[in-house]
Write a structure and sequence with these properties.
Radius of gyration: 24 Å
Number of strands: 14
CATH superfamily of the largest domain: Divalent-metal-dependent TIM barrel enzymes
Strand content: 5-15%
Helix content: 40-55%
Shape: globular
Largest sheet: 8 strands, parallel, barrel
Bound molecules: D-xylose, nickel (II) ion
Length: 437
């Protein structure tokens, strides 16, 4: 094991009273919650792009992140290896069992597709060795179809079929890399699959092309025997002004329209939910209601900013609401909680990577415990059940099972008194929530 974080010990659980910044206060990997270890409920992953490759530049300023493991190294293969070494050391010290990557985070683009493939191959070979040595697994992989200037007008939705072909090549190779690493999933986030202005855009045609790419990817997965889940990650905008995968409902309708429902699930990201004007729990429930809640990009936005700030999720209330949805669907199958999150620009020391992940893990451990306590207490479930009790009456059942007609309901309404309603008690429910946090 490398020694790029020499002053960081292996982080252990010390309990809520601990003041040690290199300890978990809530995350106890082996602790059983509803009969399953916390580790498996939460299935934490760290992402290579933010953790290892984000220099913390912003539109007004240069990178600030200190990455001492890179200093003095020029050779691309050398850099590929040292970054992976540092990453796996960090994850081991944090007891994070999974990771996520884009092809271009772990290996740079070469001057030809063949050279890009060779570089990626070298990265995958090195990562494979580190996975075997540490037991850390790939949660999901993906292709970066948004950074290179060729994708300026989109990848699958580009005006150029040559660009579509380049994107397709990248997807095939990235999926094979993910498969070789035993990845549990493969993600499509369409960062450039949208438009900047409709004045020059054939929206219907672009959407058909996006569906074509997804169909080709599903076929490729079947051809190579990739058994992991395929996910779409919704986001309403940024970098495009309008992204086709706007939110969970839009993605589900798109999948149904193009015959892809059931083949793709969704990877829901907190900050994308809020950018779409939804709460995270709304997006999770919309996905879960369709049986398509696959995985979660765990981060959070900033109340004051209208863009994807990708902050580490340190809010226990948010984590509780997320974990309530995860427990309600019976837990993740292939998915997990990927910290698609970065440090603030001022937190530039390597040690801040440790603090950021510990904070996120502890917030979600608290969220899991709170969610389990809420479920054991049962008052929210009871309140919800009682709210709909009227639907178990003969009238309610006749509507639900389809035996009522508009005419029979009119006969009923004519004879019945004005309906009596009960209060929704929202404020009581909201104050109950805090008891459990
Ligand atoms: C960007 C997305 C991206 C995806 C992977 O906003 O969150 O990081 O998770 O391409
Ligand atoms: Ni994401
Ligand atoms: Ni994002």
């Amino acid at each position: 094991m490398s020694d790029h974080f020499p002053h960081v010990p292996r982080i252990e659980f010390e309990g809520p009273e601990s003041d040690n910044p290199f300890a978990f206060r809530h995350y106890q990997a082996d602790r059983l919650v509803e009969g399953k270890p916390m580790r498996d409920h939460l299935r934490f992953a760290s992402c290579f792009w933010h953790t290892m490759r984000n220099g913390l530049a912003d539109p007004f300023g240069d990178p600030t992140a200190d990455m001492p493991w890179e200093s003095g190294r020029r050779d691309p293969l050398d850099l590929i290896r040292v970054r992976l070494d540092a990453f796996f050391e960090l994850l081991s010290k944090l007891s994070i069992g999974h990771w996520c990557f884009h092809d271009r985070d772990i290996a740079p683009e070469g001057s030809t597709p063949a050279e890009s493939e060779r570089l990626l191959d070298a990265a995958v070979a090195h990562a494979e060795g580190l996975q075997n040595a540490t037991g850390i697994r790939t949660l999901w992989g993906t292709a970066n179809l948004f950074s290179h200037p060729r994708y300026v007008h989109g990848a699958a939705t580009s005006d150029s079929p040559e660009v579509f072909a380049r994107a397709a090549a990248q997807v095939a190779t990235a999926m094979e890399a993910t498969q070789r690493l035993g990845g549990r999933g493969y993600v499509f986030w369409g960062g450039r699959e949208g438009y900047s202005t409709l004045l020059n855009t054939d929206l219907a045609r672009e959407q058909r092309h996006l569906a074509r790419m997804l169909q080709l990817a599903a076929t490729h997965a079947d051809t190579i025997g990739f058994t992991g889940s395929l996910y779409i990650e919704p986001k309403p905008q940024e970098p495009t002004i309008h992204q086709y995968d706007f939110d969970a409902a839009t993605c589900l309708a798109f999948l149904r329209e193009h015959g892809l429902a059931g083949r793709f699930k969704l990877n829901i990201e907190t900050n994308h939910a809020t950018l779409a004007g939804h709460s995270m729990e709304h997006e999770l429930q919309v996905a879960a209601a369709a049986g398509a809640l696959g995985s979660i990009d765990a981060n959070m936005g900033d109340e004051h900013a209208g863009w994807d700030t990708d902050r580490f999720p340190t809010d226990p209330m948010l984590a509780t609401k997320v974990m309530l949805e995860v427990l309600a669907m019976g837990g993740f199958s292939d998915g997990g909680l990927n910290f698609d999150a970065k440090r603030r620009r001022g937190s530039f020391e390597p040690i801040d990577l440790v603090h950021a992940h510990v904070a996120g893990m502890d917030a979600f451990a608290r969220g899991l415990l709170a969610a389990a306590a809420i479920r054991a207490d049962g008052r929210f479930a009871r309140a919800r059940h009682e709210r709909y009790a009227g639907w178990d009456s003969p009238l309610g059942r006749s509507i639900e099972d389809g035996t009522a007609t508009l005419a029979s309901l009119r006969d009923h309404a004519r004879a019945a008194p004005e309906p009596t309603l009960t209060s929704s008690r929202q404020e009581v429910l909201e104050s109950w929530m805090w008891r459990f946090i």
